[in-house]
Amino acid sequence: MSRTLALFPLSLVVFPGEKLNLHIFEPRYRQLVRDCLESDITFGIPPYLNEGVSELGTEMRLLGVDKHYDNGELDIRTKAVGVFRIREFHRQAPGKLYAAGTVEDIRDDPSQDLTIKDRITEYVQQLYTALGLRKLFVDLPPNYRIYDVAHNLGLSTDQEYQLLAATSEQERQEIVLEHLEHILPVIMETERLKDRARLNGHFKNLTPPNF
């Protein structure tokens, strides 16, 4: 079923469940925030990729305004609540400064492949340890979704959009598993070379082998 949704294109991908803080300065989006506050509407963030507004986007709910500036600018907190597909894009909503679109909600299958998840968890632990981000792994809840780690896996914006286009958790798992299997050996080798470079010029205390 289609509906009309206010749109706020940005050059990033937002995942369902993600909280996003934004600084609002353009008059059209200050107007959008006012409408969110006064009419309790939501708005969509379709990624602006390859010099165009993407077909898919993430619906956002305004959680609050943290700061009003004297010049009218705002600091706001938002949370992503779902994914939609744009069927018709309008540069301006009727009587408004901001864009809008006729959109359809995309239903998602949350079922996971636990075997794939175990492998991803192992790889993520190796990745975060190699990069000195161990705390991110420690803070990861056991029931995490791919969306919860996607921004910390070295994915390009196009790859993140591919995740957004996936309509099941298992499909997202397969995308991330393939990515980790590709980049992890490269990162591990890079870190090994860094360690070797740090040792150059230092006295080495090495235990010779017995033969």
UniProtKB/TrEMBL annotation:
Domain of life: Bacteria
Sequence ranges assigned to domain Lon N-terminal in this UniProt record: 4-182
Gene3D superfamilies with a match to the protein in the record: LON domain-like (2.30.130.40)
SMART domains with a match to the protein in the record: LON
SUPFAM superfamilies per record: PUA domain-like
Coiled coil stretches, renumbered: none
InterPro entries: Lon_prtase_N (IPR003111), Lon_prtase_N_sf (IPR046336), PUA-like_sf (IPR015947)
PANTHER family: ATP-DEPENDENT PROTEASE LA (LON) DOMAIN PROTEIN (PTHR46732)
Protein name: Peptidase
